[in-house]
Amino acid sequence: MATPHVVGLVSILRAQNKNMSSSEAKTLLQKYAQTVQSDAGKYIASAIDTYALIQDIYTENTEPEEDETPQEEQEQDENQLSEEATQEK
Questions:
Q1: Could you tell me the pTM of the whole model?
Q2: How far apart are CA 42 and CA 66, in angstroms?
Q3: Domain extent at residue 39
Q4: Is residue 73 part of a domain?
Q5: Would you say residue 19 lies in a domain?
Q6: In this structure, is residue 86 part of a structural domain?
Q7: How many structural domains are present in the chain?
């Protein structure tokens, strides 16, 4: 039953980054993999912390680039100065 879940998660990863290679997806899956043990302490399986992985990839892709914010602020300042000059006339 794990295969459909992993394939779905890889689909989400690739939806965020269409250029993501299979090895990059595998690395991310391994980064968020957690070992699940039985009460007797024996290794049973691995689980992926899907919530943390998705939060991480969405945070990475939504952070503004360094140059975007100052440029937008500069454009807003220029527009405001232009409007003020028009109102003074």
A1: 0.54
A2: 48
A3: 2-64
A4: no
A5: yes
A6: no
A7: 1
Q: pLDDT tens for residues 2-56?
A: 788 889 989 988 988 889 899 999 998 888 888 887 777 777 777 888 888 888 8
Beta carbons of 9 and 29 less than 8 angstroms apart: yes
CA distance 83 to 88: 9
Q: Could you give the count of Cα atoms lying within 13 Å of 58 in the half-sphere of its Cβ?
A: 7
Query: Does residue 9 contact residue 26 with C-beta atoms inside 8 Å?
Result: no
Among 14, 12, 15, residue whose Cα is nearest residue 23: 14
Give the whole-angstrom CA distance, residue 71 versus residue 40.
59
Asked if the structure places residue 28 within a domain, the reply is yes
> Cα separation of 39 and 75, whole Å?
61
